[in-house]
Amino acid sequence: MHITSVYFLTVAALWCPAISAEWTAVQRKVYIPWDLEATPLQIKTDSTLGSGDRIVVWMYDKNSTYISSVGVNFSSPMKYLIQYCTNSYTDLPVQPPVEVDKIWTFTKTETAFIITCNDVEVVNYLFADSSNSGCFPKWGGSDVEQIQVDTNWGKASDFYRAEWTVVQKSVNVPWDLEGTTLQIKTDFTLGISNDRIRATAPTAGQTCRTEVDKIWTITKSETNIIITCNNVEVLNYLFTDSSDDRCVTKLGGDVVEEISFGSSDTASHLYRAEWTAVERNIPWDLEATRLQIKTDSTVGNFDWIMVNMYDKDSSYIGNVALTFSSTMKYYIGSCTNSWTDLPVQPPVEVEKIWMITKTETAIIITCNNVEVLNYLFADSSNSKCVTRWGGDVVEEIQFHSWDNATDFYRAGILLYNQMGYDGAIPHLILSATVRSDRARTQTGSWEAAEPGKIITIICNRKHVLLGGDGEITCNNDYNWSTNVKDLECKPISKLDLR
Ligand SMILES: *[C@@H]1O[C@H](CO)[C@@H](O)[C@H](O)[C@H]1NC(C)=O
Ligand SMILES: *[C@@H]1O[C@H](CO)[C@@H](O)[C@H](O)[C@H]1NC(C)=O
Ligand SMILES: *[C@@H]1O[C@H](CO)[C@@H](O)[C@H](O)[C@H]1NC(C)=O
Ligand SMILES: *[C@@H]1O[C@H](CO)[C@@H](O)[C@H](O)[C@H]1NC(C)=O
User: Fold this and answer.
1) pLDDT-derived band of residue 470, with 50, 70 and 90 as boundaries?
2) H/E element holding 293?
3) pLDDT class for 126, splitting at 50, 70, 90?
4) From the CA of 304, how far away is ligand 4's center (Å)?
5) How far apart are CA 332 and CA 338, in angstroms?
6) pLDDT digits over 215-227, tens only?
7) Whose CA is nearest to atom 10 of ligand 3?
8) Cα-to-centroid distance, 330 and ligand 4 (Å)
9) Contact assessment for residue 146 and residue 39, using Cβ atoms and an 8 Å cutoff
């Protein structure tokens, strides 16, 4: 091996770059339907004072038009922001209780915003009291119909749920019961229904009888219903155990989209959803792992691909977008100032696999293996382009709520670079998890492996390669000749030499 530079082998998942990883169905960043004036929002955190974590909630009207936002900063003392009202983050007039686990309740009325923490009111903000004339017009009245719990600026929020809602009998409430567990407060006789299903739940178990306040949960999967009472499971009912065939045909599968409390239900007073985990960005080291996107949108239908990119602190870098206009256009946030025609138009097939490759200096987009864009950050007239996108920066991605083209995505992994090496045999480096090593290895120009390519794995000084020999070949079926997952560079100091 006439190789002089040294590399460090760390992580162990990789493939030849073309076709290997399974597709994942895309989950776009979604607006959560939420009538905030009717239903207070609860958020659960375990962030500590002084951590600088934030809760940030964005508010939208029913047309998804942005209204405003509310933030709470875990500074010391803690601060809050009501956008357009407080002009900056301001100390909470009452500081929250000391417990680490906190439940925050955000209540909006037509005239005020109230925040409590573990049942202590920490601020009660009257819109009319603001010195900012924009405050009341933005916040007054009842417009909030959708929210987003921000995970990029506001890393504090772990879970959210609605406050208790008063039961109105015989009113259908949208409820995806297979996705969201229902909690009910107090005694029990309940009908669950969509238009066709009305199953009367069984009588309660004995475990609750001695307690006055009862919280029941109803969790439904495609195959069973589980009921708990004050955290005790009182029923786990498998539909297939029923002697009545209708049990499986009516209740089996992902069917319940609405519920209503029956008119004969004299017990249920309040209900709410169980905690829902706040959706995080998708961890994605874009400089090490190319992003493949599958679409069946057609040119001229104006669908969008839009992927937001974030750095290791989840700070927003910019987005990459494509629109299926009659001449397809692209947009790179902070770089292109408007939609721009793709220099090469994609092939005509309806089923398209797009691949977004990012190096330290460029974004390259291919469609069904045809390169349609090779965008050098340095060519942008916008100076933010290089400062934001340059280098090894992208660590997270998120499909934007406007993305209506992406059906699936998966990894297409970059395998080696040739930095510091002059021969024909490229080095393998694996998408490293150890940051200090990455800084050293991930420079230079990236290339992808293709069938026939031989790659040599070398370890850093004082490390030994275990699990196979140092040469692996990319096969015609795009699999490596050696299972790279089995290879490891182990520090000599950690070898057992006996
Ligand atoms: C190549 O990889 C694919 C996908 O992981 C797998 O189904 C197939 O069995 C592999 N072929 C060989 C020869 O290992
Ligand atoms: C929302 O859209 C509807 C029609 O789609 C329109 O009539 C209404 O004015 C819009 N509301 C707001 C607040 O923009
Ligand atoms: C939030 O608090 C942290 C820690 O005190 C502070 O560094 C940061 O600047 C604050 N952020 C805002 C937006 O006030
Ligand atoms: C996809 O989203 C874009 C942007 O919101 C919109 O202009 C377009 O009409 C949508 N396409 C379809 C088919 O709904």
Assistant:
1) low
2) strand 289-295
3) very high
4) 6
5) 9
6) 888 999 999 999 9
7) 52
8) 15
9) no
Q: Does ligand 2 lie within 6 Å of residue 65's CB atom?
A: yes
Residue whose Cα lies nearest atom 8 of ligand 3: it is: 52
Cβ atoms of 235 and 225 closer than 8 Å: yes
- For residue 73, how far is its CA from the centre of ligand 3 (angstroms)? 6
Q: Which two tokens stand for residue 163?
A: 């406050």
Ligand nearest to the CA of 50: 3
Q: In 102-206, at which residue ranges do the beta strands (DSSP E only) sit?
A: 102-108, 112-117, 120-126, 146-150, 159-162, 165-166, 173-174, 182-185, 191-193, 198-200
Q: What percentage of the chain exceeds 70 in pLDDT?
A: 71
Atom of ligand 1 nearest to the CA of 478: 1
Give the pair of three-digit tokens for residue 16: 């030849």
**Cβ atoms of residues 380 and 386 within 8 Å:** yes
Can you say how many angstroms the Cα of residue 182 is from the centroid of all Cα atoms in its chain? 23
Longest CA–CA span in the chain (Å) reads 83
CA distance 437 to 426: 18
Separation of CA 64 and ligand 2 centre (Å): 10
Domains within the chain, CATH numbers bracketed: 32-162 (2.60.120.200), 166-277 (2.60.120), 282-413 (2.60.120.200), 415-494 (2.10.70)
Q: Which amino acid is at 427?
A: H
Q: Which two tokens stand for residue 202?
A: 């069984």
Whether the predicted pLDDT of 465 surpasses 90: no
| Buried b / exposed e along 305-322 (16+ C-beta atoms within 10 A) | bbbbbbbeebebbbbbbb
**In the sheet that 352-358 helps form, which strands lie side by side, from edge to edge?**
24-25, 406-413, 289-295, 352-358, 362-367, 370-376
Indicate if ligand 1 lies below 6 Å from the C-beta of 469.
no
Q: Whose CA is nearest to atom 5 of ligand 1?
A: 20
Cis amide linkage into residue 343, ω under 30° from 0: no
Asked whether 13 lines ligand 1 (CB < 6 A), one says no
Pocket of ligand 3 contains residue 48 by CB under 6 Å = no
